[in-house]
Amino acid sequence: MEAIDKSKKDAEKLAAAKEAVKFVRNHDVVGLGTGSTATFAIKELAERIKDGLEIKAAASSIKTEELAISFGIPILPLETLGTIDISIDGADEFTETLNLIKGGGGALFREKIIASLSKNAIIITDSSKKVNLLGAFTVPIEVIPLAYQYVFNKIEELGGKATLRVKESQKFITDNGNYIIDADFGLINEPAQLASQLNQIDGILAHGLFINLTAKIIMAKGDHILTFQ
Ligand SMILES: O=C[C@H](O)[C@H](O)[C@H](O)COP(=O)(O)O
């Protein structure tokens, strides 16, 4: 059953990726997301490059950078970029109002920088990611290690339940050398308000609530493509 679900989801991810890649134009600087859905888009871009498309890209994680390079996609250092023409990334959850939770793979900080720099930030998803209210997926929060207990306390003061992310029995370490706290706030009625409360906590580098950062969400559902913008 799980294998069937995965192949259905993968078909939807691929369909959404193909649709999004159509918006990339010659000579664009393209922001590349991280995760299984973004990987479909990176592979599609590589196909278009074989057909003559010329782009440069910025990567939202070390893994994405390695993948892009392996496909011959030229990478620019993110710190040199003042603007990005288009970005394509996945999400863990989204609402029709274009709010997202991201960071399931721990790449949220660089993804947020890329989305913020993008003139056209496109999110691609399978149909399982659409929700009425964010929050069933816990909010990933990247925290500077020395502030982690402080941030833990602050999250609990906001009514969240904080869990330090662990991978293979070790603390999960981001590409930036930080920890991830996964915070359960229950279903989030006011995501913009929660985002701004989290923004005020010292020690948080970035949180996975992406509010007003997305131009368009392309979701595949079965054979259909739905666009939210
Ligand atoms: O940190 C990871 C990113 O925010 C991903 O875009 C997100 O977790 C979705 O990943 P996937 O496409 O694998 O479901």
TrEMBL record:
Taxonomic superkingdom: Bacteria
InterPro entries with a match to the protein in the record: NagB/RpiA_transferase-like, Ribose5P_isomerase_typA_subgr, Ribose5P_isomerase_type_A
Residues annotated as the enzyme's active site: 111 (proton acceptor)
Keywords: Isomerase
Enzyme class: isomerase
Binding site for substrate: 34-37, 89-92, 102-105, 129
Name of one Pfam family that matches: Rib_5-P_isom_A
A GO molecular function held by the record: isomerase activity
Protein EC: 5.3.1.6
Catalytic activity: aldehydo-D-ribose 5-phosphate = D-ribulose 5-phosphate
Pathway participation: Carbohydrate degradation; pentose phosphate pathway; D-ribose 5-phosphate from D-ribulose 5-phosphate (non-oxidative stage): step 1/1
Annotated signal sequence range: none
Assembly and interaction partners: Homodimer.
NCBIfam families recorded: PRK00702.1, rpiA
Summary of the function given for this chain in its UniProt record: Catalyzes the reversible conversion of ribose-5-phosphate to ribulose 5-phosphate.
Protein family per UniProt: Belongs to the ribose 5-phosphate isomerase family.
Name by which UniProt lists this protein: Ribose-5-phosphate isomerase A
Organism (species): Pedobacter ginsengiterrae
Gene name per UniProt: rpiA
